[in-house]
Amino acid sequence: VTPAALRLRLRSLGDRLGALDRRRDRAASVALQRARTRLSQAARLVDSLSLKAILDRGFALVHDPAGGLIKRANEVQPGAPIEVQFADGRIGAVADGGGGTAGEPGEEQKAKPRAASPMKKPEGQGTLF
User: Fold this and answer.
1) Which one of 29, 32, 82, 114 counts the least CB within 10 Å of its CB?
2) Nearest to 52 by CA among 93, 89, 83
3) What's the CA gap between 77 and 102, in Å, rounded?
4) Is the Cα dihedral 64, 71, 44, 57 positive or negative?
5) CA distance readout (Å), 84 to 7, 12, 94
6) pLDDT < 70 stretches in the chain
């Protein structure tokens, strides 16, 4: 083991340490940028699911006189006072009891099936069977 060999080995290890240090810095920078991106995406998702965002999209909440949330039409009696919350404020209203098709609580309204329309066979086109 000569001093020259030790210096050469020390220089080689120093270069390797410098390269590893730069790799660590790049990896930390990439990891931090990815974390920022994920955080930004999560923040946008939370914002899109907020009550304000939902009301801004045109939905409204209906409250009873005590301030409780009314979730189903059959929870409201005709003539009952209600309050409707929009994105820009609240208004008072009176339920008229007309037009609703509320079922029992927990019962989902099912869409009526459409009548099948007969398909016309284009002229000049043969069949596959």
Assistant:
1) 114
2) 89
3) 12
4) negative
5) 81, 75, 10
6) 98-122
Token digits of residue 84: 């409707």
Give tens-digit pLDDT for 46-76.
Answer: 999 999 999 999 999 999 999 999 999 999 9
Q: Is the dihedral of CA 71, 77, 79, 80 positive or negative?
A: negative
The pTM assigned to this predicted structure is: 0.51
Distances (CA, A) of 78 to 3, 14, 84, 87, 104: 100, 84, 16, 25, 16
- Spatial strand order of the sheet with 89-94 comes to 61-63, 81-86, 89-94
Q: For residue 73, give the DSSP letter.
A: G
